[in-house]
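request received
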Amino acid sequence: MKHLQVPARTTVAFQGDLGAFSQQASRRIFGPSIKPLPCVTFDDVFEAVSGKKADLAVIPIENSLAGSIHQNFDLLSRHSLEAIAETYVRIEHNLIAHPGTTLRQIKQIYSHPVALAQCQRMLRKWKKLEKVSFYDTAGSVKHIRECGLRNAAAIASSDAARIYGMKILARGIEDNRENYTRFLALAPRGRFVHAGKKTTIVFGLRNQPGALFKALSVFALRNIDLSKIESRPIHGKPWEYLFYVDLRSDIHSRECSNALRHLQEMTLYFRVLGCYPTF
Amino acid sequence: MKHLQVPARTTVAFQGDLGAFSQQASRRIFGPSIKPLPCVTFDDVFEAVSGKKADLAVIPIENSLAGSIHQNFDLLSRHSLEAIAETYVRIEHNLIAHPGTTLRQIKQIYSHPVALAQCQRMLRKWKKLEKVSFYDTAGSVKHIRECGLRNAAAIASSDAARIYGMKILARGIEDNRENYTRFLALAPRGRFVHAGKKTTIVFGLRNQPGALFKALSVFALRNIDLSKIESRPIHGKPWEYLFYVDLRSDIHSRECSNALRHLQEMTLYFRVLGCYPTF
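response:
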């Protein structure tokens, strides 16, 4: 399966402007015929699908250097959306400016704070340049384009350079090339059938010794591999957590369905966030 | 033990300006006679102790609403410092302005983005006011004071209002009163003896099914309670993690020292970050 089949012109919401890494991820999952809906914040992305302004959403969930995007874990537990696919995008950062602008003319560098943090080595070389935090990488290219900032550059994807007709001054300026982001595609619950080799669940446990150990035993006893575990605080219950777990297992398999039934004997809260393929 | 005994005028580095919540935490742990060293970033705090500009440091490690301060977990693994004490501070946010300024005159609200995010309910009531992100809560009070910004207010602690001679316009404006931050005091390795009822460790495992389950078994088999588990990505090894675990156990107890020896039979990396008392 090359792409997840959806009707042409299906609207897919994502955070950032056209050219954002999330848009690359949505094309990889759904192919080129979807209609992108850029949103300013992750809240807006979830609201767009919950409020039916978009059919689907694509969100980053984890970066191999920066770690989990915790806000999106919290939004997953607040909204009634399901994961229907995942993909991985290698993050390549480029220094982008107006055509004709040279590196010597640059006085300011705009980008998302995480992108600025991932290009420390190059930024130390250009230490006289002012760093400006912006809400999005692609949006920073759009901004210096639209405001005609000829002494500014932005750090973003090569897609963003192409979309806004800008020039790449330096390519691959990230400190660490092992820089990947994992994205999830989301849909309203029940719209897609659970189908894939990966299952994501969220659960809450009694706050007692050995509780997490017992919960993980349901997978270990059945040789089900966990690819990720993340804990997030429960608001209003200081030092209690929800656990988000990714399983390398199909929810329809006998061992996975048994494990999840076994798990529910000990959870205070349990929800399947999705069972989905990888693109 | 009311405070952790340190020589008078011991220098304690923390992130933020005078009046920061971290300074409150350092006073709670060490008492009033320490000399505060405000730092701009968490990196600066760790560097201050590593480079001997400060004797000790106090850092926030987790907030009951926002979750872990991941940057500080990463800095703990990069620097050779040890945890020597912990404390919990209730975070009360206040709207602070120049004496004589009224709420109607305010056009801008400055604070740290996490503080702004924790006062959404009040900020929605004052939705015409511009929100300005600043690097520190107390620092935003200092800024509007020093720049004479009479149409601006800051969100910060009552300590910050007192220190900079400013007025509290609205008290306790946080959305959720169950808002606590846990702080750790840090010292160069070997300077203090391990002594306390809580032990923090960090370890890395082989990436294989059941690895985390087996690791947690060393504690479950001995009825040692985990109060917190946090995973952070290992740079350069996508989708591999270091696990940070807090144990409600004294490292000198037989069960804890046995558990840690048992754990090291299966870890690729293991380090004790400290065993310490709570203040």
